Amino acid sequence: MTSLDLQKIGTAYYEFTLPDTASFTKELETTPVFFVKQLEQMEAPETRTTLHQGYCTYSILKIVPNLEKVFVAGDNLDIFYFIFGVQPNEQQKFDLEVNYEVKKGDDSAIRWTLQKYESPLVSQPLPLKQTVQIKTGEEERTEQRDLAPGNYTLIIKIDDKVSAKSVTKTVDFEVK
Fold first, then answer.
1. Model-level pTM?
2. 3-state secondary structure at position 24
3. In a 3-state reduction of DSSP, which class is residue 2?
4. What is the pLDDT along the chain (176 residues), one digit of tens a residue?
5. Domains in the chain, ordered, with CATH?
6. What CA–CA distance (Å, rounded) separates 147 from 103?
């Protein structure tokens, strides 16, 4: 590794393996699902492999991940991931359906409407708002409230409608 002006030169070694995407013919798999703290559009994509401190890039996107997985009331869960093993239909389009749900222990806290995607790259903001039914005497109404502080689990159920394959992923997070 070097600085762009070649004044600082160093080495680093980290052993890891990347999955062979051709091996995903029998099942679906995702990259690690991570939360996005900040997402910006750059003027042009990076054409040179560059290591960045505190962020990564994808095409023309500058992505700052929320590695702590900690949110405050009113935040969105902005998630980002790629799905391996999906198959296109005859028109070469993908047909993916994804259910998102937040649980606190065994209890469901939030369930969003079914999301449909035509691409295996997913960037999805999910508002941390609960719909609560309130009864006062004979009257009944619904109200939107921020998710209460605590530890939660995001459950992602992915269905490829073309291949009939599915996968479920979970990610823990905290609301302060």
1. 0.82
2. coil
3. strand
4. 777 788 888 877 767 676 677 777 788 999 889 999 999 999 988 887 777 888 888 888 899 999 999 999 889 999 999 999 999 999 999 999 999 999 999 999 999 999 999 999 999 999 999 988 888 888 888 889 999 999 999 999 999 999 999 999 999 999 99
5. 23-175 (2.70.50)
6. 11
